[in-house]
Structures are given as structure tokens and as C-alpha cells.
């Protein structure tokens, strides 16, 4: 069913939970995990000086995040491919899906709601709305969510 599973990661706790789910699915389906870190170019476009230093630092951070996923996959006996790219996050994810024949995207969500979600936007939401493949969203751990009420782990599947 799934041969190639993409897990976009930012190194956050929500991203780590998505990695756990991606590894479990890859194990079940004998799939390859693709770990992707996207440096959001739009966030740094207004910097006049030092943008190269910022991008270099973020590339190092991104490499560490995908290397962590690669180590976890290796420990589980899962094939993995990694990439660090610069671009608009949801568009870069969509391009990666198309260019690498991805069957499923597994990504974390911080569970923001209300005005916070409206003001900050949601890469996960944009990915869900624009993806041509299924997207499994994995919420951050309950102790990280302000709206946690009963301690249950939640994962939402969207197509």
C-alpha cells in the first residue's frame, strides 16, 4: 500500500511523534522513509545583512534533524532518504511528494486553535488541503497541548 513515506520534520516534539508513526508504518509496509527539512525562505527574506549566515545555521539545524530521523530509521531497520531544502514549506513538501513518488505524508501538528492558528497559519493544514496523496497528521503530545483534556493520544488521517 505504501512504498515511500515522507515525514517533514522540524525537530520539534510534534515532529518527533510524526517520525514515530512514520517508522511504525514503514515497518508494517516495508516502505522507505523520506525525511525532509524545509528552511522557510519567506521568514528570512526581509533580512538585509547576514542572511547567508542564518541560512547556513538553519541548514546545519536541518541536517541534524534529518540525521536524527535517519538514525532512528536505521535502528528500526528501515531504509531512509534525507533532504534539506530552502523554500516555502508547504510548496516544498508538495514538490518533494511529486518528485519522489511519495505515497503518504506523515506530519506533526501543534494543535493550535482559534486566533493563534489564524495568525500563525498552518503548514500542516496547507499540506492537507493541497496534497494529492494521503496526509496523516499526528498531534503533539498531550502535555504540550493546552487543550488536552483526557490524556488520549490522537492521530487524524486526512486525504
UniProtKB/TrEMBL annotation:
It comes from the Archaea. Residues 143-159 have a biased composition (Acidic residues). CDD domains: USP-like. It holds the Pfam family Usp. InterPro entries: Rossmann-like_a/b/a_fold (IPR014729), Universal_stress_UspA (IPR006015), UspA (IPR006016). Residues 1-139 form the UspA domain. Residues 140-159 are annotated as: Disordered. Belongs to the universal stress protein A family. This is Universal stress protein.
